[in-house]
């Protein structure tokens, strides 16, 4: 199905038209984009890593010191703490037995400075690490 932007003089507005006489207004398009964004957010919640991988969301960087001084983006550095969103079932040993994960969803963990795979969904950054790459977890 081909969708094209056209200017409709009758309604003085740009609309998307399909091959059939049905047309979408800007409001229809914005509503469908909102639904798509919600679906992407639900997609991350439903994402289940494989094997011994862990999906995490890094904490936000501090933008202001305790004294109230603003920290520029370049000087903020990488945040090494994150919250675990979901985990895989675990790795396998040489005999094929399942090795259970030691981290769970909701855990507060310490990450290495480098490594992992960055995943961006709806302008939000997530990272996937192997459990062995995670340096430790904080008691809650």
Automatic annotation (TrEMBL):
GO terms for cellular component: mitochondrial matrix. SMART domains: Cpn10. CDD domains: cpn10. One of its GO terms (molecular function) is metal ion binding. Pfam families: Cpn10. InterPro entries: Chaperonin_GroES (IPR020818), Chaperonin_GroES_sf (IPR037124), Chaprnonin_Cpn10_CS (IPR018369), GroES-like_sf (IPR011032). Keywords: Chaperone. Signal peptide: none annotated. PANTHER family: 10 KDA HEAT SHOCK PROTEIN, 10 KDA HEAT SHOCK PROTEIN, MITOCHONDRIAL. Belongs to the GroES chaperonin family. This is 10 kDa heat shock protein, mitochondrial. It comes from Loa loa.
């Amino acid at each position: 199905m081909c969708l094209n932007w056209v200017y409709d003089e009758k309604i003085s507005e740009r609309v998307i038209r399909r091959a059939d006489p049905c047309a979408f207004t800007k409001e229809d398009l914005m509503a469908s984009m909102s639904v798509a964004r919600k679906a992407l957010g639900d997609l991350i919640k439903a994402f289940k890593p494989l094997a011994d991988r862990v999906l995490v969301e890094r904490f936000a960087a501090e933008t202001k010191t305790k004294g109230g001084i603003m920290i520029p983006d370049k000087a903020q550095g990488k945040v090494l703490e994150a919250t675990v969103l979901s985990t895989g079932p675990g790795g396998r040993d040489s005999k094929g037995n399942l090795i259970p994960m030691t981290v769970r969803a909701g855990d507060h963990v310490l990450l290495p400075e480098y490594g992992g795979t960055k995943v961006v969904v709806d302008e939000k950054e997530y990272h996937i690490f192997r459990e062995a790459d995670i340096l430790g977890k904080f008691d809650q």
